[in-house]
Write a structure and sequence with these properties.
Distance between the termini: 87 Å
Low-confidence stretches: 1-18
Helix content: 55-70%
Strand content: under 5%
Amino acid sequence: MTTRTTGSTTRTAPRGGYRRLSVAERRGQLLEAALSLFAHRAPEDVSLDDVAEAAGVSRPLVYRYFPGGKQQLYEAALRTAADELEQCFAQPQTGPLTLRLSRALDHYLAFVAGHATGFSALLQGGSVADTSRTTATVDEVRRAAAEQILLHLAVPEPGPRLRMMVRTWITAVEAASLIWLDEGRQPAVAELRDWLVDHFVALLTATAATDPQTAAAARAALALESAEGAAGRLARRVLPVVAEAAHLL
């Protein structure tokens, strides 16, 4: 510690207690503060003063790093969140497909739960911060998620039916997540995850009934499933329902 005397006032300055942040570190600090605020409040309800206060800095410093103001800060925070969401589906391509989907959904739903208000505002639109760039970023996340699912299905050149099926499921995951938040996070997150995995298997097999490429992908994927896995449990629940309706055939 060093002691400085100015007039009648003696001040003690800490040595080593302050470290100047690099440009990247300061920018990361501001983005983290913004993401934390956007997680619980809609973008239009967050001001630059709020971000400055959350980061423990001055408003002019926020403008120094984001001269475009809140819009630029929001888009940068959205890009950071988008990168995190894209990684949710980038799971190791080993083991049964339903297990990979379960892991991906665990990460995705954890993000949804931790960024509830911001996630809802982002997907529902209508924010004053919404622009063509933010819309493009959201669409990029959806496309990246679909590409990851197609990689898990080991289909390098998917046809329109299979691609449509996968993108339909991604849309269903988004919609279910919003409804889940609106319903007070009911059912339990594990139940929601398992239902979404079942939904994928159902869509896959239904599409396989009329599309040869999807049928081949489905056979390859289901061959890795065990009787006690998610696909096996779903089959045992569905078969009695199908058998009961067999008299309609």
